[in-house]
Amino acid sequence: MDGAVLSLVPVWTFLLGLTVFYYVLFDGFDLGVGILYGFAPREDWRELVMNSVAPIWDGNETWLVLGGLGLLAVFPVAYAIIIPAVYFPILIMLLALVFRGVAFEFRFRRPAMRRFWNNSFFVGSMVATFAQGVVLGTFIQGFEVKGRVFSGTSLDWVTPFAMMTGVALMFGYGLLGAGWLIIKTEDGLQHWARKAGQVCLVGTALAIVAVSVWTPLIDPFVARRWFTWPNIGLLIPVPVLTAALTFAEWFILRSKAEFLPFLGGIGLFLLSYCGIVVSLWPMIVPFHYSIAQAASSESTQAFLLIGTLFLLPIILGYTAWSYWVFRGKVRGDLGYH
Amino acid sequence: MTLDPLILSRLQWAWVIAWHILLPAFTVGLAAYIAVLEGLYFLTGRDIWFRISGFWTRIFAVSFGMGVVSGIIMPFQFGTNWSRFSDSTANIISPLMAYEGFMAFALEATFLGILLFARKLVPPWAHFGAAIMVAIGTLFSSFWILATNSWMQTPSGYQIIDGRFFPRSWTDIIFSPSFPFRLAHNDTAFFVTTGFVVLGVGAWLVRRNRSPEEGRMMMRMALNLLIVLVPLQIYLGDLHGDNTYAYQPVKVAAMEGLWDTAGPMPWAVFAIPLQDEQRNIYELHIPHLGSLLLDHSWNGTVKGLKEWPRDQQPPVWPVFFAFRIMVGIGLLMLLVAIVGWALRLAGRLYDTGWFLVLCQWFAPAGFIAVLMGWTVTEVGRQPWTVYGLLRTADSVTPSLTGGDVLASLLLYGIVYLVMYPAGIAYMAGIVRNGVAAADDPGAIESGRPPQPFQTAPGEPG
Ligand code: HDD
Ligand code: HEM
Ligand code: HEM
Question: What is the mean pLDDT of chain B?
Fold first, then answer.
C-alpha cells in the first residue's frame, strides 16, 4: 500500500478520526445523560432527563456502527486485531446498549416492569460507558500481535490502567451529559445539572492528569514523543490549554451560561483526543501497525470515499435539521404519563 | 470434552443473526405500510388512515428499537469472532456495509425520531416525508447487506493476493450473480411477512370486535397485497433456485437430499438424510419432478452430493428440512390468500369465523419461512464463508478459547431471552388495546402522550 502517488490514507484517517470523535461527543452526552439519570433525586426530573434524549439517541448510536465499519473499511487489520483483544469489553458494551436502548420503548408499556427498564437505562448507560473507557485504555496500552492476528488472551484488557480509563470516561460522559441537560432544562433541574457537572468536571480533570502522567510512564514511545526537544516546545500548548479550559469550565458551570458548559466539555474532549493522537501517532495498532501499514486497498478507499463525500454532508444536514426540530427546553407540564 | 471456539462461534452467529433478521423482516414491510398510510392520510385527510397509522407506528417503534440494538451487535461479530474473515475480505465487503451505514442507518435513525415524536412540530408533508425516508432507509439497508451476503455466496469481481481478497470491479462485486435474485426474493419475503401480520391482527380486531372498522380495512389492504406478492414470491423463489443451481450446485443437492447423480431425478417429498452413510432413509418421492423443477426437462440429469468430497458437503438435513418447510409455508400462504379473496368476493370475509382464526394463525408464518430460507442459504453454503474460497474454519478469530465464546454465547442467550419476549409482549399489549380513536392522546405520538418535548418557540435549541 506504500508508494502510491496520491494516497487517500491521510484523508481517511482524518474522516475516521472525525467519525469517532463525533460518536464520542454525541453518544457521549446521551450516555452521560443516562448516567446522571440514575442520580437525579426526583422522579419528575428523571422523566425530563430521559425525554431530553429520547428522539435522538438512536441517531447518535448509529455513529458507533459507522465508526466500527469505518475502521474495518479503512484499517482492516487494525479491526481484526483490536476487536478480538477487547472481546469482553465489546461484548459487555453491546449488551449494556441493548438494555439501555430498548428501555426507551419498553418502559411505557407495562407499569409493573417500569422500574426494571428505568434501572436498565441507568445501569446500561453506565456499564456501556465503562466498557468504552476500558477499550480506550487497552488501545493506549497496545496489543500483543503476531503477524496479522492478535496473539494475547481475551483477558489482556484487565489492567489497572484500563480500569482507570473506564471510570474516567464515566466522569467525562457525565460532564457532557450535564452540559446537555443544562441546555435542555430549566430551574431546579438545571441547577442540579450544574452541580452534577461540577462533580464530573473534578473527576474528569483528575482523570486527565492521571492519564497524562501514567501513559508516558508505561510507554517509552509516548515519553519520547512528549518529552524530547523540539516536541516539548511544540506540544506544550496542549496541556496548558487543557488546564486553562478546566478552570474556565468550573466557573462556567457556576455561572448562568446555558450553552457554554456543553461547549467547554466538548473543548476538553477535543484537547484530550488531541493528546492521545499526539501520543500514538502514527500508530493505529499500538505499537505494531502504523496507519500506512494497516490501510485497506486503494480501490476500496477510493470507492468508499466517493459516496462518503457525497453522503456525509447530507447526513449532517438532516441530523442538524432534526436537532432543530427538537430544539428548546423539555418541560414537565407536558411530559410522559 | 474440549470446547471448540469454532462451533461455539458459529452457534453464536446463528443465534444473534436469527433474532436480528426477524426485525428487518417485519420493519421493512411495516415502514412501507406506514408510509402508505401516512400518504393516504396526507392526501385524503380521512381519520381512519390516521388511526391505523398511529396504531402501527406504536408497534413499529418497539420493533425498530429492538432491530437497532440487535443490529448494532452484528457488525461487531465480524471483529470479535470472525477476525480472520474480516481481515481477509474487508477490502471487498467493508465498503458495502459502510454504505449501508451511511445510506440506511443514519437515514432511518434520524427520521424515525421525526416520525415518532414530531407530528406536531413539523408540517404534515414533512411528517409524511419522514415516513417515506424511514421506509427508503430500510430498503437501502437490505440492498447493501444482501449485496454483501450475495458476494459471499457467489463471489465475483475480486482477485486474491496473499490470501486476501482485493477488488477488481465494483459493479461485479455489488451485482454478484446471486444478488438480484436474493434481493428480489428476500425483500418480497419481508413484505409478505408484514402482510400476514397485518392480516392476522386485522382478523383479530374484527373477531374480537375491538376496532372492527380498522380491522376490516387492514384485512382488505393485506389481501390486496398478498394476492399479488405471494405468487410472485413463489415464482421468485423458483428463479432464485435456478440461480443457485447454476452457481452452487452442491447446495441444491443438499436442499433436495440427492446423494447420487440422477437423471431423471425424482423429487423427495420426505426423507431422512443420513450424512454419515451418504444416503436417505424413509424416502418418499415423486418421479421426474426433480428434473422438471431444476433442469426444466422430463429426464434431465442433476448432480448428487457424492460428486463432492465429504469435506466440501454442507450439513444436509438442516438444509433439506428447512427448504421443505419454507416451500410448504409458501404454498399454504397462497392458499390463504386465495381463500381470502374467494370469501371476500362472496361477501363473507368478515364473518367467516374459521377463516379469521386461520389468518391469526398465519400471522407468524412469514417469520418462520424467512428463518428457514436463511437456513437454506447459510447452512447450504457451508463449509465456506466465501463460497469455494474461504473456509469457515479459517475465518474464526484465532485468539479465542472455547471458554471465551461459551461465556459470550451464554450472555447473548440470556439477554435475547429477556429482551425478545418482553418486546413481543409489549407489542401484543399494543394490539390488545386496539386502535385508539384519533382524539385519544395516546394515539398521537406513537403511543406516547402528546409530546415528550414541548418546544418554546423562539428559544434557541
Ligand atoms: C415469506 C417468506 C418466504 C417464502 C414464502 C418463500 N421463501 Fe424462499 N427464501 C426466503 C423467504 C421465503 C428468504 C428468507 O427470504 C430467503 C433466504 C435468503 C434469501 O434471499 O431469501 C429464501 C431463500 C430461498 C432459496 C435459497 C437460495 C440460496 O440462497 O441459494 C431458495 C431456492 C428459495 N428460497 C426458494 C423458494 C421457493 C421455491 C418458494 C416457494 C414456495 C419459497 N422460496 C418461498
Ligand atoms: C445478510 C447478511 C449475512 C451475512 C453477511 C452473513 C454472514 C455469515 C457468516 C460470515 C457466517 C459464517 C460463520 C458461521 O459459519 O457461523 C454465516 C453463517 C451462518 N449464517 Fe449468515 N449471514 C447473513 C445473514 C444471515 C441470516 C439472515 C441468517 C438467518 C436467519 C443467517 C444464518 C446463518 C447461520 C445459521 C450460519 C451458520 C451456518 C453453519 O455454521 O452451519 N445468516 N453467515
Ligand atoms: C438479510 C439480512 C439483513 C437485513 C435485510 C437487515 C436489515 C436491517 C434493517 C432494515 C435495520 C433497521 C432496523 C430494524 O428495523 O431492524 C437493520 C438494523 C441493523 N442491522 Fe441489519 N439486516 C440484515 C442483517 C444484518 C447483518 C448481517 C448485519 C451485520 C453487519 C446487520 C447490521 C445492522 C445494524 C448495525 C443495524 C442497526 C442500525 C442502526 O444503528 O440504526 N444487519 N438491519
Answer: 87
CB contact under 8 A, A82 and B79: yes
SS (H, E, C) A37-94: HHHCCCHHHHHHHHHCCCCCHHHHHHHHHHHHHHHHHHCHHHHHHHHHHCHHHHHHHH
Distance B14 CA to ligand 2 centre (A): 6
Per-residue model confidence as pLDDT tens digits over B52-76 = 988 898 899 888 888 888 999 999 9
Residue B365 CA: which ligand 1 atom is closest? 1
Is ligand 1 within 6 A of the CB of residue B233? Answer: yes
* Cα separation, B18 vs B7, whole angstroms: 16
Across the interface, whether the CB atoms of B91 and A315 are under 8 A apart is answered no
Lowest-confidence segment of A76-80, A91-95, A130-134, B192-196 by average pLDDT: A76-80
- Whether residue A333 is predicted with pLDDT greater than 50 in this model: the reply is no
Name the closest residue on chain A to residue B433, using Cα atoms: A109
> How many residue contacts between A and B have a Cβ separation below 8 Å?
264
Distance between CA atoms of residues B85 and A187, nearest Å: 54
> What is the number of the ligand 1 atom nearest to the C-alpha of B190?
1
Structure confidence at residue A328 (pLDDT)? 78
SS3 category, A274: helix
Can you say whether the dihedral through the CA atoms of B351, B357, B362, B364 is positive or negative? positive
- Integer CA distances (angstroms), B237 to A139, B233, B290, B323, B360, in order: 47, 6, 15, 11, 25
More confident residue, B287 or B390: B390
User: Least CA distance to A329: which residue of chain B?
Assistant: B455
At residue B64, what is the residue type?
F
Calpha distance A8→B29 (Å, rounded)? 39
- Of B84, B116, B426, which has the smallest distance from its Cβ to A109's Cβ? B426
| pLDDT of B389 over the 70 cut | yes
A145 phi, psi to nearest 5 deg: -135, 140
The mean pLDDT of B200-211, rounded to a whole number, is 89
Q: Between residues 69 and 98 of chain B, which touch chain A (CB distance below 8 Å)?
A: 69-73, 75-76, 78-80, 83-84, 86-87, 90-92, 94-95, 97-98
Contact assignment for A329 to B79 by CB distance below 8 Å: no
Q: Which residue has the higher pLDDT, A114 or A184?
A: A184
Whole-complex ipTM: 0.85
Can you list the positions of beta strands (E) in A166-323? 283-285, 289-290
CB atoms A325 and B452 under 8 Å: no
**Does the beta carbon of B326 lie under 8 angstroms from any beta carbon of chain A?**
no
Q: What confidence score (pLDDT) does residue B453 get?
A: 39
Per-residue pLDDT for B185 more than 80?
yes
- Does residue A334 register a pLDDT over 80? no
DSSP string covering A84-145, please? HHTHHHHHHHHHHHHHHHHHHHHTTT-HHHHHHHHHHHHHHHHHHHHHHHHHHHHHHH---E
Indicate yes or no: CB of B113 within 8 angstroms of CB of A59: yes
Task: Mention every residue, 6+ apart, whose C-beta is less than 8 A from residue B353.
Answer: B207
Ligand 2 pocket residue status of B82, Cβ below 6 Å: yes
